[in-house]
Amino acid sequence: MANHLRQQIRERVATDLTGLSTTGSNVFQSRVYPLETGNLPGLLIYSKDEDSEYVTIGAIRGVLNRLSVQIEAYCEGTANFDDTIDTISKEVQIALAGDQNLNGLAKDIYLVSTEITLDPSGDKPIGYASIIYIAEYLFNEDAPDVAT
Question: Is the pLDDT of residue 146 over 80?
Answer without folding.
Answer: yes
